[in-house]
Amino acid sequence: MSEQTQQRPGPWSGLFGRITRNVYWVVVTEIAFVLASLPGIAGLVLLEPHPSNIPLFALSLVPVGPAFAAAITTFRARQRDDDLVVWPRFWRSWWRDLRDVLFVWVPVLAVLTVLGMNIAFGQAVGAGGIFAGISIVLSVVVSVIAVNALVVVALFGFRTRDVWRLSIYYLGAKPLVALSIVSGLVLVAALAWFTTPWILVVIGSLLAAAALANARKMVADIEERFTSGDGADASKPA
Prior knowledge:
Elements lengths: L2 H4 L7 H33 L7 H7 L3 H17 L6 H35 L7 H27 L4 H14 L1 H20 L4 H4 L1 H11 L1 H11 L12
């Protein structure tokens, strides 16, 4: 085989090839994300949008956490590898991290459920607007910690309590990351409010990619300070 033949660009090379690969990666990840979240999506379809259903909405969101974490892991693999093995990566990550993610995600939903009930029914039980305002602020803080925790649990093999410690620590250690998450939450809430909540399902994988991109400084700092080369608490394989 001649040197010219060996250097001939493949069908996926060039700008068009890179764009095609990225689009393929996003589309396949999004399909997998929707399928993994399908039990919860079915519940959301059947529920009436009423404050009394907040606990049921939270229960329906349980499958979304593992799906979101698997999407983060899949996009992390895209940063390291240039192949098109997307589907098996997603489901391998989903199954591997299912238990760890639920240990993080379910308590988050429980806390947000309580805060949501406080916001919805605080006036009815005689609590003032200050009580509702505090609940809103706490909901935002918990949501930021939850995003950090999903990124950490998706990419690293830490114990659950260490995941929480790191997620809370980086709330202050990397305030720009936290501020970006808050900004993203506001934009996502506005997008859902002015269009339809179902848009969040359509762009779920893109939100995971955005969370990963936003957390790159936090991830780099964790890799530098809290992982070791002997396999203990090291980054998970893609």
